[in-house]
Amino acid sequence: MNIFRLAGDMSHLFSILLLLLKIHTIKSCAGVSLKTQELYALVFATRYLDIFTGYISLYNTLMKMFFLWSSFTIVWYMRYHNVVRRSYDKDQDTFRHYFLILPCFILALLVHEKFTFLEVLWTFSLYLEAVAILPQLVLLQRTRNVDNLTGHYVFFLGAYRSFYILNWIYRYFTEQNYYKWITWISGLVQTALYADFFYYYVKSWRNSERLQLPA
Amino acid sequence: EVSHEAKDEL
């Protein structure tokens, strides 16, 4: 574990806590894409299967359990909780996220490290996570004024993978033959998708004005 | 450090 990876995990944890705070306390999911939340639940479900087959550390296991629990809880709140679901703007959250799942799965069948059930699912989860934020970014462009909590949620979610990139660079230079092309490229694509959002987020923060993404 | 194989990252 290095400081970059810890910062990344804490940023990821914080982003989810922000979203849970928003949904649980003000019982609102306005501006949040259910499709992105469903994609993330699928990402964690296909990536963290190894909590049943192996043990790496208490930290690793606890974080995986939290990510699994929180992602499915958020999806449940947005689909079935009768107060929260009313604030979900269904007609704006129209990104066809099913069109992301199949290509990622096919790509995982073609490009992977080992052709085993767990490895292909794990690779699928990496590709899917890279694009999972797309429905949320599209929704942010449509909902004119983004509320602060949602903006911060997306920012820390993007920041987590950016820290991971620093972590991979650090590990590349400090560990023998440490390389993970598939993980690295997926992580770079994922972070690149946030570039535009980061620009407008920092700009709104510096001008202390509301976050607005151009349509 | 953990070997290249193990998936020690989240």
Textual characterization of the structure:
Chain A: Residues 1-28 form the signal peptide. Chain A: Its main location: endoplasmic reticulum. Chain A: Pfam families: ER_lumen_recept (PF00810). Chain A: The chain crosses the membrane at residues 55-77, 98-115, 121-140, 152-170, 182-202. With 215 residues, chain A is an all-alpha fold. Chain A has one domain. Chain A has eight helices and no strands. The mean pLDDT of chain A is 96. Chain B is mostly loops. Helices cover 0% and strands 0% of the residues of chain B. Chain B is flat and about 15 Å long. The relative contact order of chain B is 0.43. The A-B interface holds A 5, 9, 12, 50, 56-57, 60, 63-64, 67, 122, 164, 167, 171, 174-175, 177-180, 183 and B 1-2, 4, 6-10.
Sum up the structure in keywords.
A: mainly alpha; globular; B: 10 residues
Short description:
The complex is a heterodimer of chains A (215) and B (10). With 215 residues, chain A is an all-alpha fold.
Question: Strand fraction band of chain A?
Answer: under 5%
Kindly report the average pLDDT value of chain B: 66
| Rg of chain B (CA only) | 6 Å
* Gyration radius from CA atoms of chain A, angstroms: 17 Å
| Main beta sheet strand tally, sense and closure of chain A | none
Q: What distance separates the N and C termini of chain A?
A: 40 Å
Helix content of chain A: 55-70%
Unreliable stretches of chain A (pLDDT < 50, length at least 5) are none
What is the general shape of chain B? flat
Principal-axes geometry of chain A comes out as globular
The helix tally of chain A amounts to 8
Mean pLDDT of chain A comes to: 96
The secondary-structure element order of chain A is HHHHHHHH
Largest sheet of chain B: none
Helical coverage of chain B, percent range? under 10%
Overall structural class of chain B, as computed from helix and strand content, comes to little secondary structure
Helices and strands, with pairings:
The complex is a heterodimer of chains A (215) and B (10).
Chain A: H1 3-25, H2 34-47, H3 58-80, H4 98-110, H5 117-131, H6 134-142, H7 148-174, H8 181-206
Chain B: no helix or strand
